[in-house]
Amino acid sequence: MGRVAMSDDRGGRQIMEAVMDLGDSERYGVELPESAAFIQARALLDTGEVVEAVTVARRAAEEAERTWGPRHPRHLAARIEQANVMAYLGEYTEAIDILRAAAAITLDPSDDVQSRRERQTILLNLGWLLTRCGALSEGEELLERGVAERRTFYGAHHPGLAFGLEALAESKLAQGKLEEGLVACDQAVDILASLGHPRLPSALALTLELVAQRELQAEGSPSQAAPVEPSFVPSFLNKLTDEITQAVTEELLDRAARVALHDPVPIRRLARVLDELIPVLNESPRFGSDSPVVIRSRIALANLRALLGDHQARVEHIRIVVEAARRIGDTTLEIQALMGLALALDDLGRPDEADDFQREAVRRAAESNNPYWLALAQRNLGVRLDRLGRDEQAVKALADAVEAARASGQEELMGRVLTALGVVRQRLGQHEEARDHLDEALQRLPATHPDAITARAHRAALERGDQPCDDDTTEAFFEAVRAEVMARAPEGLIEWFDLTPGETPDDPPALEVRLSREPLGDEVEVLNLVVRHALEHAQRQGRMVYPPSSIG
């Protein structure tokens, strides 16, 4: 089932954690504004035009090199922007190659000061990317070299040095060198605090993570839920203004939203910090239990606890959110929390209570006269009833969800509820109705949406007259990738494109491509990017919500 109720859906993908973000590409003291090409590339990425965005960024960098020369700041800045675009797309190897080449350009004392500034950004971003990709020692070495160069270039009390120290502290955290990380982070905090710099909350949040990891490491049992350190968080926050405290909390929530789902270490660490932070915020005159930042902190902590399998704590936090939503009169939050509570109780093995709260979510959504939330609540109820074997009730709930979704005017929501209803009706032998629902769902959903993959797999099974199997889901996934590749490849280049499963489930699919003409210029490079991105996009879509072969 799709965990829509308590998840924090974030548009776009942030890269390189707090250091680089495509939407706010901090240039560490650099005065050059974003280039027109980068702004255009970002707009293209926002509309899913990946190849066009990559091409714009690459051509802008090549043009800058031809026009200004390799050592000119405009060329170095353009390479940074090009690497940003590639990293945003998850093309980390390509981003690293771009930054390596830029870092290899030799500067001399006569070069423009701006060129030397850009070099500092290149070293920092390259070191961070290497760290992110697991090349921890090389990343650390580059970041340490960058800090030394920044200290010489900027001086001991400049934010440019603090940025380098913060990135180095992140690298130390990733390697478990916590005392070294705290030393670097404390230096960054001192510089930023003395300047009143807006990046101070980021460094303070990193300090909390380093301390939390140190305590977990000292205990030798990361699963324990003891406080970060007796009174550490209260004493830490007491030194801060309310405004800084809120900003630090926002940084922690941002980190929690970006946490890698497969890595329990940062999940435990962030849960530990939030466990200690929330009581402090609750007792603060400025915040209190019903303040937005505390409510969002509880939602984030509930999600982290879910990832750790601690569903009892998850249930407790969501119950508190339900109560807060009722006190402040936020009906939408209440509906979301009720659906999240039902999911959590299901995972805790208490289906009867889960059923009660899901029905309450439906009732509150109906009272709110909001068809979007009513459709989601009814859909979740229908999926639950289907899993419990209550067929007629499931069909009724999902049919009601379809009507509400139509009233909402939301195409994706409409596709999702139609998929769920079609799948249930297919299982019940109502094949004609199922076929109509699945066909309409496919018209409304993007090809790589997980529900579209599910609908396509079930539609194929209907044509055969049986129930879908794993092969149907695999073929539906491949069809989505084929459609995206054919739509985005250079015009007239591909005659035929196909994928076949690898020898084992863990193996990547085999690709077969037949070209209709000789490629021109960089078209082979573009085609490779299109294929990689289509595969990664489809896989990420499926992971984001639920396995493609189930109803989410």
TrEMBL record:
This is Uncharacterized protein. Keywords: TPR repeat. PROSITE patterns: TPR (PS50005). Gene3D superfamilies: Tetratricopeptide repeat domain. InterPro entries: NLR-like, TPR-like_helical_dom_sf, TPR_rpt. TPR repeats lie at residues 415-448. The lineage of its organism: Bacteria, Pseudomonadati, Planctomycetota, Planctomycetia, Isosphaerales. PANTHER family: AAA+ ATPASE DOMAIN-CONTAINING PROTEIN-RELATED (PTHR46082:SF6), ATP/GTP-BINDING PROTEIN-RELATED (PTHR46082).
